[in-house]
Amino acid sequence: MAPTQASQNILSAICTVINRCQTQVSLDACNSGVQATNGISSQLGLPSNGYNPYFALESAESSNQVEANSVATTACVNTINNLQCDSPTVVAAYNAANVNPFSGVPGMIPTPACNQVFTPAPSGTNLEVPIEMSGQGMASSTTAVTFSRTRTSLNTADYDGIVTYSFEIMANNNDTVSRNVHLVDANGTTVATISVPAKTSGAATRYRTIFAATSGASDYRIQLDGTSAASQLEVWVGRMLVQQVGATQTKIFVPLMVGLASTALTGDASLSNSQYGYVDDTYSFTYSQADVGWYVLWQKNNAAFSQLVANNPWTFEAVMNSDASNTSAYASIFDATTGSQVTASEVTTTSQTPVLVSSSFADSASNFNDRDIMEVQIKRGGTGPGLARIYRAGIWIKLNNLAHAEVYYRYLYSLTWLTGYGSGDETTYMVMLDKTLFSAPVSTYNELTGYVSGAGVSCTESVFDNGESDTAAIGAPVSGSGLTLSSTTLTRQRSAAFNITSADRFGFYVSAPTGSGACYPVNSFLVVGF
Q1: Which candidate, 278, 359, 388, 429, has a CA 20 to 30 Å from the CA of 436?
Q2: Cα(44)–Cα(412) distance, rounded to whole angstroms?
Q3: What domain count does the chain have?
Q4: Are residues 204 and 221 in the same domain?
Q5: Residue 471, class by beta-carbon neighbours within 10 Å (0-12 exposed, 13-18 middle, 19+ buried)?
Q6: In a shared domain, residues 90 and 145
Q7: Domain stops at, among 77, 104, 120
Q8: Which residues touch 37 (CB under 8 Å, ≥6 apart)?
Q9: pLDDT, tens digit (0-9, with 9 covering 90-100), for 142-176
């Protein structure tokens, strides 16, 4: 059910009966009066000393502090609607002589039918975890394609409390009919479908749907319908989101690689297609980054997380392949501050199609130093002639005894912003951030990885508030979110905390570069600390 549907439906049923039986009481007057009345929540299954007056229950449901049972709600509403006007409880529900004329309303709530509508949310922490699935944008072929390069793990056992799973995309469709984007699990079973309307080929639009995750450990991929011609359906970003209410444990994902902005490719390496969609590749037998523009810098900061699980709280995950026999693809986390490999994180495969590989390791793993900057590097191995390819990569953080943490919403993919471009904004990779989903206090930050082409070049990247629009950019930069790029070396920066309008949509804004050359904003996170 929608967050406030149960309490609102019950209120509507109560006032419909009162208005039907005592016509002098308008629906508006009844709604206001019942919302100010105590004692109703206890008739609906909640403690007698809580959620008073009724509007407090509505607020609690809206903020996921209580959970409604949809079957019990339907039974309760139907029973109230069937109450007769000569019923003593209906007659007593409204009495104009009382200080609160509606003080008798709790008595008209039929407890056998209604006392299981609500249950209190478990005590714990509230949060939303974004899980980025796409390293590079996807475009349709003339037949359906399931993109192996988006394969992303998710284990429902890692999340507790009241858990809601959502699938979100930014997409447009230039075909003459609507086309679907699916989320499929490890068995190829469709668990979520989003329909993208026809002829939406302008600015990308944000779509989201709730889905039932496959129980236990699985992995998920994004599938695009076939279209009349190639590349008519474009999905710029795909992500899963996990909302938790009353959580004591969670698992947070930090993307460590990023694809090229404004580029959606038809290919997956499992297809005979030159547009493979990999983010980087290498012929090198030693670890390196062929192009730093695809690599995210992230600072390990244990103080940001209330408690790491005792056994292997960190997992490095990547989708990789080699392109020839007898060739291996390797990836590993490196401590960029010291230049040393975190050997325990290394993953490898000889598969010639994209596969998900991962390695879990201890917080004490060699060279995985707290407060240092971390990055990914890749190499190839074996005796074959092929190269190593990587499609997406990131690190998971597993927590228990949850009290505080931070999560990472990515809203910018790797850009080349030339001098002469002027300033600009874009919402192709927008995120929606609802601060009410997090336990207070909530702080928001901008975190940017990037560099410039030469001395004297600089630009400022800011979070762009797009209001409540899920499509074309119509807003303004967020005050206090700006970060200036001026170094020719890839660097990571984080802003001071700034205020945002909760539940707005956010993209990026880049100022006109100074000097002669280019700015390269590589990746931006809207970081939420709670």
Answers
A1: 429
A2: 45
A3: 3
A4: yes
A5: middle
A6: no
A7: 120
A8: 53, 54, 100, 102, 103, 105, 106
A9: 999 999 999 999 999 999 988 889 999 999 999 99
